[in-house]
Design goal:
heterodimer, A: Glutaredoxin, 2 domains, 4 strands, 47% helix, B: alpha/beta, Rossmann fold, Ubiquitin-like (UB roll), de novo design (two linked rop proteins), 3 domains, 5-stranded mixed β-sheet, 4-stranded parallel β-sheet, 13 helices
Chain lengths: 154, 386
């Protein structure tokens, strides 16, 4: 049994072998392995006794369940109107300058993926971004660099 | 002369003893409390405005051994952030509101569907849930509450889509009827309410419907949390009585140069300056889930509309054609007009399309795209064209 197969069978034992467990299982796999590849989706399908197409179909519906290679840290910058007005583009530029990736790209070391996301619910403290589950608000080109430097050291 | 805004402080009131209120309701009896809820006129605070008492009554009347209570914490409407604050600061009121619902309708299990973006709240919520479950056991009430997470899909805030997501599927809305009150989670009768709605049910248990209806207006009772952002003199979350005008709102929150206010998020309406004095915020005027975005005269309404359309085009679930193709065409259409690739009159074609989407789309997403589109084009046409 491969690493991920073993992990997935543990998740099925935890949540139960039923369709309702699919989302929590997909979410936990993404938390641990950062994205869903074919091997992982096949293993989930087998463990839940549903088709792989169904697993892929479900996963690909959700923007936080990446089905293509994603870095250890997903940086998601809010692009919706208020963060846009508060100059989210300057934040993106600062990130690109520091780690050399544009929205949609993953760094060569596999550490970071940069994405745009829709309203994060922090409009009054925009611009805002998520790095995995952590929220960062009131960003400036300066403080976003400090935040990223702390992740680069991790 | 501007009249003063009527502020209240109920939702974040700190000294509310939730276990005691639960006991109070149990003493009062299910039917008596349900009557209070109906009398209060409370309407769902997520935006759709369905009467909460009626929803609970319908689920209560269903003959089923298994029923569920679900809190819709998939707050994704652009410009709305009040549910996050409630979950953070008034955690007990939310979960005890859910316990009240479970007690009234006869449910033993419940879920909070929390958007993935708010996962940082999970630890706090779990601790509060453990405490609540223990307290309820002392009262002889067995209610198990669990967390489920979204994964970055706006549409899952639509209740049937939320249920599909919880069942392990793509979050695509289903046809109504059947309504969740009859056939909800796993086909069982289910109460699905917004975070703020559950808090209001606890407030009503506390102050009673007679006090509650003194707040707000006849069509829009009670107070409401507003998420205020944009070109403001102050941004944040404010609890105000419903029934105020946009003018009153702008006098209080604007920066002195307010051109337009978007009420109700991307799926709401854009109110231009000339209509501020006679537009009431509430069910008799422009309804809102609480999102109030303020734009001053430095903002391009084209950029705002384009941003909304990019949002909808990404978030449309793609299931029904009017919404899937409609959102794309509206976006590409205004871009083409801006680039002078299409004549100005093409906007009239797009308005017809928006109208069609309102009637032909399967769910609230596609049906409400036209709200912002029509109100922005209607009031700021020249900014879209030139």
């Amino acid at each position: 049994m491969s690493n991920s197969e073993e992990f997935i069978s543990q998740l099925v034992a935890k949540y139960g072998k039923k369709r309702e467990s699919l989302m929590p299982i997909l979410q936990d796999v993404v938390d641990s392995f950062y994205y869903l590849n074919e091997e992982r989706m096949v293993a989930i399908a087998k463990a839940l006794d549903i088709s792989t197409a169904d697993v892929y179909g479900t996963a690909s519906f959700y923007s936080f369940l990446n089905t293509t290679e994603r870095g250890k840290y997903a940086i998601r910058v809010c692009q919706t109107i208020i963060c846009d007005m508060k100059r989210k583009e300057d934040i993106i530029d600062a990130i690109t300058e520091l780690i050399g990736i544009k929205p949609g790209q993953t760094s060569h070391d596999g550490k970071f993926t940069l994405e745009y996301t829709n309203c994060l619910g922090w409009c009054h403290k925009g611009p805002a971004m998520l790095i995995n589950d952590e929220v960062y608000t009131e960003l400036t080109p300066e403080n976003v660099k400090d935040i990223l430097l702390s992740y680069m050291k991790k | 002369m501007a009249t003063e805004l009527k502020r209240t402080e109920l939702i974040f009131k700190e000294d509310m003893d939730c276990p005691a209120l639960m006991k109070h309701v149990m003493k009062m009896g299910k039917d008596a409390y349900l009557q209070e809820l109906l009398d209060s006129g409370l309407k769902g605070r997520g935006g759709a405005g369905f009467p909460t008492g009626l929803k609970w009554k319908l689920v209560k009347e269903q003959e089923s051994e298994i029923k569920y209570v679900i809190c819709n914490a998939d707050e994704g409407e652009p410009g709305t952030f009040k549910d996050r604050e409630i979950l953070d600061r008034s955690t007990d009121k939310v979960i005890y509101g859910m316990a009240l619902a479970a007690y009234i309708v006869g449910a033993k299990e419940g879920f909070i569907y929390l958007r993935g973006e708010y996962k940082f709240l999970a630890t706090k919520l779990k601790l509060a849930i453990d405490r609540m479950e223990a307290q309820l056991r002392l009262l002889g009430v067995h209610f198990h509450l669990d967390l489920r997470f979204g994964s970055g899909a706006y549409i899952c805030g639509e209740e049937t889509s939320l249920l599909r997501s919880m069942e392990g599927h793509r979050g695509e809305p289903t046809n109504k009827p059947p309504y969740p009150v009859q056939s909800g989670y796993l086909g069982q009768p289910t109460v699905v309410n917004n975070v703020e709605t559950f808090v209001n049910t606890i407030i009503i248990a506390d102050i009673g419907s007679k006090e509650y209806i003194k707040l707000g207006t006849k069509a829009s009772q009670g107070s409401k949390l507003f998420s205020v952002s944009g070109d403001c003199c102050k941004e944040g979350i404010f609890e105000l009585e419903l029934g105020l005008t946009v003018q009153q709102f702008v006098d209080e929150f604007g920066d002195g140069d307010t051109k337009a206010v978007q009420v109700g998020g991307a799926s709401g309406f854009c109110v231009p300056r000339k209509e501020f004095p006679n537009t009431i915020i509430g069910y008799e005027g422009v309804p809102t889930g609480g999102s109030m975005k303020v734009f001053n005269s430095s903002r391009s309404m084209y950029n705002i509309l384009e941003n909304y359309l990019i949002f909808f085009e990404e978030e449309s679930c793609g299931q029904c054609t009017p919404c899937r193709v409609g959102t794309q065409q509206l976006l590409h259409g205004i871009q083409a007009v801006k680039r002078k690739e299409k004549p100005k009159t093409y906007l009239d074609e797009l308005l017809k399309l928006a109208h069609t989407m309102k009637y032909a789309s399967k769910c609230g997403l596609g049906r409400s795209v036209g709200n912002a589109f029509t109100s922005i084009i209607g009031n700021f046409r020249e900014e879209i064209v030139y």
